[in-house]
């Protein structure tokens, strides 16, 4: 059994917990009441792929938890950055998130996924034009409430890319992420 630690980060209210709940089938993800995640929530579940167990870290997007970022990153295999392109300021936060969670952490670009969670597709803002490392990361547009299947497909593809070609032994998997 391969255990993969995946951290989900991004600005507050981007939809990280909603997506995490949907993917892990934890609780009713269509409960629209926004409850900020205090610090981090860790969800364990098995995706459709055999012999893989996911440890999904649903991290708070609030600035006051920034001191915990190295803890989130520790031993992480993959990083998912979630943002909402409709919310002003979210796209601007991406460079800093990318810098801290990918560039400085040494998580390979191929082990990162950028998720635009557009809550109202009819008013979707134009996708920002990325440059540098951000532009090299796989980018998907989703709406978890309207089309959860697309989120699941993107997530499982990402999980396959993390585990492909590598036979991890549980104790040998800490090399990808270094503390900040
Ligand atoms: N309509 C709609 N609402 C969504 C969608 N995704 C998230 N929401 C709502 O957006 C709000 C914020 O979602 P959360 O998942 O709690 O946000 P978060 O990124 O975990 O926020 P923090 O924990 O504070 O970092 C909630 O009220 C959700 O119900 C979506 O795809 N469509
Ligand atoms: Mg949350």
TrEMBL record:
The species this protein was found in: Nesidiocoris tenuis
Keyword RNA-binding attached: no
UniProtKB keywords: GTP-binding, Nucleotide-binding
TM stretches of this protein: none
Pfam families in the record: Roc (PF08477)
Protein name: RAB, member RAS oncogene family-like 5
InterPro entries assigned: P-loop_NTPase (IPR027417)
């Amino acid at each position: 059994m391969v255990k993969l630690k995946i951290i989900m980060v991004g600005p507050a209210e981007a939809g990280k917990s909603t997506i995490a709940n949907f993917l892990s089938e934890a609780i009713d993800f269509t409960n629209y009441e926004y409850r900020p995640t205090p610090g981090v929530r860790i969800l364990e579940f098995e995706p459709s792929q055999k012999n893989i167990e996911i440890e999904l870290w649903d991290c708070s997007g609030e600035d006051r938890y920034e001191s915990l970022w190295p803890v989130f990153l520790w031993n992480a295999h993959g990083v998912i950055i979630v943002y909402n392109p409709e919310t002003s300021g979210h796209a601007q936060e991406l460079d800093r998130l990318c810098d801290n969670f990918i560039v400085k952490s040494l998580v390979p670009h191929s082990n990162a996924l950028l998720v635009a969670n557009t809550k109202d597709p009819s008013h979707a803002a134009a996708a920002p034009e990325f440059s540098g490392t951000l532009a090299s990361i796989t980018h998907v547009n989703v709406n978890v409430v309207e089309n959860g299947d697309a989120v699941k497909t993107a997530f499982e593809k990402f999980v396959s890319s993390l585990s492909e070609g590598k036979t991890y032994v549980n104790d040998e998997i800490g090399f990808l992420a270094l503390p900040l």
